[in-house]
Amino acid sequence: MLLASFLVSLMLPTIFALGIKELGPNTKLGGSLMVIIGGAVFPPIEGLVFGATRSMATAMAVLLLCYAFIAHYGFVGCKVREPQALG
Predict the structure, then answer these.
(1) Which of 11, 14, 16, 20 has the most CB atoms lying inside 10 A of its own CB?
(2) Cβ(64)–Cβ(81) under 8 Å?
(3) Please, which contacts does 78-81 make with residues 24 or more away whose CB atoms are closer than 8 Å?
(4) Under DSSP, is residue 75 helix (H, G, I), strand (E, B) or coil?
(5) Which pLDDT does position 81 carry in this prediction?
(6) Of 24, 40, 36, 30, the residue nearest 73 (C-alpha)
């Protein structure tokens, strides 16, 4: 558990920086949405899942889905793409 916390502490600033890269004038909005969704939306969803199932392991599946999405974004979604030629 301690190792997982250490790795998350390294991952979060990196993913945040990749997420707001090249947003231009929307950088503040993009950063705000990431913080709000990650900190204010998913914890209550996790609580609802726990309340419905009375299983903390099942509730942690919400976090597993979030971490899977973050890993996908880190490995695939944040790659710089070449601009497509028109016509």
Answers:
(1) 20
(2) no
(3) 78/18, 78/19, 78/21
(4) helix
(5) 65
(6) 30
| CA pair distance 27, 20, nearest whole angstrom | 6
Q: Which residues contact 18 (CB under 8 A, 6 or more apart)?
A: 73, 74, 78
Q: DSSP letters of 3-72?
A: HHHHHHHHHHHHHHHHHHTT-GGGHHHHHHHHHHIIIIIHHHHHHHHHHHH--HHHHHHHHHHHHHHHHH
Q: pLDDT category, 21, cuts 50, 70, 90?
A: confident
Q: Name the residue ranges covered by the structural domains of the chain.
A: 35-74
Give SS3 for 74. helix
Q: Distances in Å between the alpha carbon of 50 and those of 54, 62, 74?
A: 5, 10, 28
Instruction: Specify the pTM.
Output: 0.65
Q: What is the mean pLDDT of residues 54-60?
A: 92
